[in-house]
Structures are given as structure tokens and as C-alpha cells.
Design a protein that fits this description.
The structure is a single chain. The protein contains six helices and 14 strands. It is of the alpha+beta class. Strands 1, 2, 3, 4, 5, 13 and 14 form a seven-stranded antiparallel sheet that branches. A hairpin with a 5-residue loop joins strand 3 (about 50-55) and strand 4. The chain is globular, with a radius of gyration of 20 Å.
């Protein structure tokens, strides 16, 4: 397969109804270098011009930028531009169906297993943190029975993971605006609607509930226009999915929003326990403003 090269432009604009005297923020907008993906270039433009921009790595190995703006302003624009090479074939979940999900759970936890010889390319201690509840991925009422309905005793692990993804896609409606970044998982389960962030949180919660380490991943997905129509600029959006640790395959990305296994149409930006670890932008401002407007436009262009 020929590697894909993407140019990703993520534009964020905050507009305030009063002057902001100072802004301090952190941006998770630079794609990670991971197996099957590497970043050719990355640049962050800030308007007004930032007084300080520093880059660092966080606990999970993500790249983030700290930004300070001291120029008074009523609008703040942050544009992240990256060129990324992706060479990530879709993993074959059927290839590990010799493992039951219980055997897979024991193997990734480095416990004795009745299944095939454990082959897991991951530190079980590091993976442990992705089994625990986190601020937005707890074991809310309803998570256990939802997970148990898919992870039935003895079911092949690849089949079970794929079924979980398909089930979330089938039973939940994608509907922007009905949830926010702070909506509890229990509300999502009750409403049966939300956006990619909510569905990723639910998949992560179910996988952790049955003992399979799972990450929340943020990034981008190449979108395709309807047949015969040009691609719309700014029509893409940041995306979120889950990543589960499996024997033989290692960490495998799964996208319940689109009922897919993650392949070379996806660009990984950052991962953590849940959204709170890796929001695209977060920060603090000093202002008398009582209202603000957020506008986000993303272009993922194959070059």
C-alpha cells in the first residue's frame, strides 16, 4: 500500500462580547508520531500574536503547546497546520478469534491464561491506568449490562469488540447539540444520542468494564463528499474514537460513530483516559465578557 499524506488545517476562533486582557491556553493540535504515522511538519498560528508559545510532551506522550496572549482582544484565532504521513492498514480482528474475550483479558493483564500463548506488545503496568474509571468514563449505571449483552461468556474477542462497535453505531443516533463536553455517560446511555466523543466514551467504558484496557483517542478522519460533488472546505471536524489493547494485535483503534476499525483514513492527534485529558484547546481568560462564540473549521486534505 502507498502511504497517504494529509494536510490538516484546524482553525478555532473565539469571539467575546467584551475585551479579553489576557489568555492562557493549552492546545492538543499536533499529531503524534506513532507506528504507522509520522508528522512531516506542524505549525501553530495565533492571532493576536502570542507572547509565548512553548511545546512539551505530557504524561501520555502527546505533544501540546502552551500559549499566552497578553494583547487585549475581542477575538482569538488559533490555526494549527500539519502535514502527516499515514501508513496504517486496518487490523484483522478475525485473526485473533482463537482467543475468547476472557482469555484476552487475562493475557493483556499478564495473568495466566488458558488461551494461546500470550503475545501482547505492551507494558501491563502502563496499560493498567486504562482500566480504571476516569473523570468522564466511569462505570455509570447501565454500562455493565450494556457491555455484558455483547461480551457473552466465551465469545471470541475480535468478534465481541466488532459487535460492540456495531451495536453503538446501530442503537445510538448521531445528533450534534444534544450533549456537551461535560455530559455524563449515564445521560448518553439514557438518551441514546450524542456525538463521536460520547460514543467513544461509551465504547471505552464498556471495554474497561470487561477488563480490556481502552484509551480515548482524538484526531481526524478524512471525509468524502457525495459522488460527483467537490469536497467542501472546512467541512471536516475533529473526531474521537476508542483504542483497545488486544493479544497479538496490540492497540487497535475502533470507531463506533462510523462502525469502523481505524485505518489509514484516520490521523491520531492525542490519547488519554477520556476527553478531559486531550481537549483540542483549553485555558483561562481574564475578561468582563459574559458571552462568547466558538467557531471551528477543519480541513483534512490528501496531498
Amino acid at each position: 500500500m502507498t502511504p497517504r499524506v494529509y494536510r490538516v488545517v484546524h482553525r478555532t476562533e473565539y469571539v467575546y462580547d467584551d475585551e479579553v486582557t489576557a489568555s492562557y491556553g493549552r492546545a492538543y493540535l499536533t499529531p503524534r508520531d506513532v507506528p504507522g504515522q509520522w508528522t512531516r511538519s506542524a505549525h501553530l498560528d495565533v492571532t493576536p500574536v502570542a507572547d509565548l508559545v512553548t511545546e512539551s510532551g505530557d504524561f501520555f506522550g502527546n505533544r501540546s503547546a502552551y500559549v499566552e496572549v497578553h494583547t487585549p482582544h475581542r477575538a482569538l484565532v488559533v490555526i494549527a497546520t500539519s502535514e502527516v504521513v499515514v501508513d496504517r492498514p486496518a487490523p484483522d480482528l478475525e485473526s485473533i478469534d482463537d482467543w475468547s474475550w476472557e482469555q484476552a483479558r487475562d493475557a493483556v493483564a499478564d495473568r495466566p491464561s488458558a488461551g494461546p500463548t500470550p503475545v501482547v506488545d505492551a507494558d501491563p503496568v502502563a496499560a493498567r491506568e486504562f482500566l480504571l474509571p476516569s473523570p468522564q468514563v466511569g462505570f455509570a449505571h447501565g454500562v455493565a449490562p450494556f457491555a455484558a449483552a455483547t461480551f457473552t461468556p466465551g465469545r471470541p474477542v475480535g468478534q465481541a469488540v466488532r459487535a460492540l462497535v456495531a451495536r453503538i453505531h446501530a442503537e445510538f443516533v448521531y445528533r450534534p447539540g444534544v450533549t456537551t463536553v461535560t455530559t455524563p455517560l449515564g445521560d448518553v446511555l439514557r438518551r441514546r444520542e450524542g456525538v463521536c466523543q460520547d460514543f467513544a466514551h461509551l465504547a471505552v467504558a464498556c471495554l474497561r468494564r470487561v477488563g480490556l484496557p481502552a484509551r480515548y483517542v482524538s484526531g481526524y478522519l478524512e471525509t468524502r463528499p457525495p459522488a460527483g460533488q467537490p469536497k467542501l472546505q472546512g467541512a471536516d471536524a475533529s473526531h474521537a474514537w476508542a483504542c483497545v489493547l488486544l493479544p497479538e494485535l496490540g492497540w487497535v483503534g475502533v470507531d463506533p460513530t462510523n462502525d469502523r476499525v481505524v485505518d489509514d483514513e484516520y490521523v491520531v492527534t492525542a490519547w488519554g483516559r477520556d476527553y478531559t485529558d486531550v481537549p483540542p484547546l483549553k485555558g483561562v481568560i481574564f475578561t468582563e465578557s459574559t458571552r462568547s462564540t466558538l467557531n471551528v473549521a477543519v480541513d483534512v486534505i490528501r496531498i
